Fold:
Amino acid sequence: SPRLGNLYVAPGNAASYGTNVPLNPMDFEAVRQFVDTHDIDMIVVGPENPLVEGIADFFEEHPVKIIGPCREGARLEGSKEFAKEFMVRHHIPTARFMSVTEETREQGMHFLESLQPPYVLKADGLAAGKGVIIAPTLADAKDTLADMLDGMFGGASDTVVIEEFLTGIECSVFVVTDGEDYKILPVAKDYKRVGEKDCGPNTGGMGAVSPVPFADNEFMDR
Structure:
C-alpha cells in the first residue's frame, strides 16, 4: 500500500515484502518495546497463540492499533469445545458432538458407536492446524480417541471433541468488526488434506484460493 511506511514481520517470513525481525510474538513486553522504539502504528496478529494468550488485551491501553480479538473472543479459536457450546447456545447450526476427557473416555467410545463413519476427532486446544483427525472406521476412531487422550497433541488433547462427519463444500467468510460496525472481507477456501484428490491427513491448510468461485451473491445472501 502507498500508505505503508515500514512493514516488520515477527518472527519472520520467507516473503521479502517487509523487514524480518527475530521477535517472539508470545513475548508481549518485547513486542511493546519494539513498537515503542520503531514508531509502530498498527499490529496485525496472524498466529492464534498470541491472541488466545491475550496480546490484544495487553495493548488495550496502548495507543497502537491492534487487529485481532481479545482473549475472550479468541476462545472461539482456542477451544473447540467452547466454540461448539457457543454455537449450540446461540442456535447456530453445527454437527452433533460430544466433549470427552479421561474421566468420560467410556462415554466417548459409546458416542462413537452412535455415529456413522467416517468419524471426526478434534483436539480441544491449539495444535497448529493439525489437531483434527478423520478416522475411516469405528476401530480407528476408538484407537485415535485413546491416543489423543493419552497425549498425542500434548495438553491440547486433554479434551477431545468428537463430531458427526458432515459432507459438503467448505469456505471461510472473514469479518472485521470493532464491536459495532463490521466489514466482510473476501471469502477464502483452503485445502486441508495433504494428498491429491482430497486424501491423506489434515493440515492447517496447504493452499488457499480467493475469491471462491461458488461464493456468488446468491450464496452469500443465503
In short: The longest strand covers residues 199-209. Helices lie at 28-37, 48-52, 55-58, 71-78, 80-89, 105-113, 138-149, 217-221. The mean pLDDT is 92.
